[in-house]
Amino acid sequence: MFKEVITKSKTRQIVYLCFCAFVFASCSGGSNTNKEAEALYNSAVEMNSAGNCEQSNRVLDSLSKTFPNEFELIKKGMHLRTLNGEKIIKKESVSNDSLIAVSKPVVEHLANSFNYIKEADMVEGFWMSKRLKRYAQSTSIEPRIDNNCEMYIVSNYVGGGIGHTSLSVVGGNGRVSTATVPYDKARNYRYENEGKRYESITFKPAECAAFVEAIAKNGGSPITISFNGASSKSEKIDGNTTKAFQETLAYSEASKNLKKAQGKKIYLDKKLEITLKQQQKTKVAN
Fold this sequence. Notes:
The protein is of the alpha+beta class and about 290 residues long. It is built from five helices and ten strands.
């Protein structure tokens, strides 16, 4: 009986000593962890002050993953993220506003040089330079802009007989050609009118981008292009048409940039509004 009491007493002592050791170790480890966590948070604050907001967010990610129990610091980090977000959005907005400032005057300047054409049998209309005549009765190429601000071309070969499927031009970078569009009675079709034979192809933007750029570089000067098919025929394109190519490409690019930037501005303004609301909420929690 006496032996049993002594054994129980020793057991209690051992348990008590282990508990004390555990508490000491926990307190000691907690203190070190807190210092390390606080150092991480402070470095994230410094990065925010220096304008390195993306890096600051990465440090906050590391803080949350490495010290998930440091709730107070993580709360502070949530607020700091919104401060980072505000700076990131404002920086992006400055760049985006610059693009609007550059593109808008170009669009406004060139807009009066184009007609929007939408006929009853058309699914979608297009913009075409006022320099060019619609329904040309002679061999020609027409630069156009679709509703997505993308530039494309339509070739018209009068006389027939070559079955053309592509176009080529010789410029400063050598011979540049469009993609080949096979005869399909849709985008590549042929017809007769008043005894004349016509061949016409609609080239998609990606199929003629390099060809368009090569002609636009010669804007205002005549240039010779080749209609390629079963045989090839060279035709001179006048300076008025090459100028129309130059203006159409500029109008297309500026319109695309402006449309994209204006859409992005709406997005960034809304994102900033949400970020500022989150900033107020986390500030209270902080």
